[in-house]
Design brief:
mainly alpha
């Protein structure tokens, strides 16, 4: 019951905060904790797509793939994963060709969310981690950090890695509207360990 309430609260807060994902309140770029040793993110099994044209064209191509994936659901309503490798290749190509760009980080976050929604949790974790590493100044970094913790915690059962990610999020994003959610999720793990 507690997890369901926290998930409901998270969804409401995510809807509120997605339109205005805050950087830390002091205006500084948050420092990243070192990658948690408890989880090996591994490598992607696809090669980056080489985009022809501008960043805007690349983003539009990724948006088209996201729309195609979003429209392709199985009989239970879950997203199909057949185009996820294509999306990952586009994600990697975008990050390679257009680094340190806020528009690229936003569509990258959307791509990671699609992989997560399609239940491709290992690749979603890799994508969130890649975003956090590649775009440290992105306005989506707080959300990416929290979502990474949630995937590690709830989907991949990597509690130690999730605790490190939640702690990093809580410490470095004190002004973020979802810090309370991160604190609640960390508290649940710590309570379960007792």
């Amino acid at each position: 019951m507690t997890k369901h309430l926290l998930l409901f609260f998270f969804i409401i807060c995510l809807q509120f905060a997605c339109s205005n994902d805050n950087n830390p309140t002091n205006g500084s770029t948050p420092k990243l904790a070192s990658q948690p040793a408890a989880y090996d993110y591994g490598n992607f099994s696809v090669e980056p797509v080489k985009f022809e044209g501008t960043q805007e064209q690349a983003i539009n191509q990724i948006k088209t793939t996201i729309d195609e994936i979003s429209a392709d659901r199985d009989e239970e309503g879950y997203l199909q994963t057949t185009k996820i490798p294509q999306l990952i290749g586009q994600f990697l190509g975008l990050m390679e060709q257009f680094p340190a760009n806020d528009a690229a980080s936003r569509i990258g976050f959307d791509a990671a969310e699609v992989a997560n929604t399609a239940r491709d949790y290992e690749n979603a974790a890799r994508m969130y981690h890649q975003l956090i590493t590649a775009f440290p100044k992105s306005d989506r970094m707080g959300h990416a950090r929290l979502r990474l913790g949630m995937v590690l915690d709830q989907k991949l059962n990597q509690k130690e890695a999730a605790k490190a990610v939640y702690r990093d999020f809580i410490e470095n994003f004190q002004g973020h509207p979802l810090v309370g959610t991160g604190e609640g999720l960390l508290y649940e793990i710590l309570q379960a360990e007792k």
